[in-house]
Amino acid sequence: IHTLSDDKFLVKRVNLNLQRNSFESKMNNSDSIFSFTFNNIKKIVIGQAVYKNFYYNDDNRVYQMLYESEKYKLMKGFEVKLISGSANPMVNRPNDKYVRGEDYFIMINGTISQVKLKKKSIFKTLKLDKLNSSNLDMFVDSNSLSLKKVEDIVKLLEYYNCLLYTSDAADDLL
């Protein structure tokens, strides 16, 4: 756990509670569960995954950070849905069950937009002009990227960030 005051704490057995959008940990062989609020927490790192809290759609939500740069961030958000069971044997769903859902988001200048893992949705969210759009199309084709895979979208965003950085540096020279 990384706090806003740059302190770090190691907590074992941490889980993300999707209903509450908070992290929880069972403490020292007891039945007590400690719930972490993001009031003083900058981020939580579990293995290689980094989680941060942002305000979106009138609610604080926890996102897994997939890519971060100065200009934009690619994030994965989670939600849990209840699928009701049915007494009808033709439905083949005798019991209620909870299902975890995932959505992808891009944050640009503090504004979060939901994005689908499709080229058109990503390009529209990034508000690309024709030149950058054609450059990214060539990059996707030459590297055989599939924009339905998160890893390939991260590669695309890294390349786009390099394009923006070099164009900003060229503008500064003029």
Would you kindly provide a brief summary of this structure?
This protein is an alpha+beta fold. It has helices spanning about 120-125, 130-140, 150-174, and strands at about 1-5, 15, 20-25, 35, 40-45, 50-55, 60-70, 70-85, 95-110, 110-115.
Can you lay out the helices and strands and say which pair or pack?
Blueprint: E1 2-3, E2 14-17, E3 22-26, E4 33-36, E5 41-46, E6 49-56, E7 59-68, E8 72-83, E9 97-108, E10 111-115, H1 119-126, H2 130-142, H3 150-173
Antiparallel strand pairs: 1-5, 2-3, 3-4, 5-6, 6-7, 7-8, 8-9, 9-10
Helix pairs in contact: 2-3
Structure description:
- This protein starts with a strand and ends with a helix.
- The chain has helices at residues 119-126, 130-142, 150-173, and strands at residues 2-3, 14-17, 22-26, 33-36, 41-46, 49-56, 59-68, 72-83, 97-108, 111-115.
- With 174 residues, it is an alpha+beta fold.
- Strand 9 and strand 10 form a beta hairpin.
Question: Key features?
Answer:
alpha+beta, three-stranded antiparallel β-sheet, disordered C terminus, 3 helices, 174 residues, 10 strands, seven-stranded antiparallel β-sheet
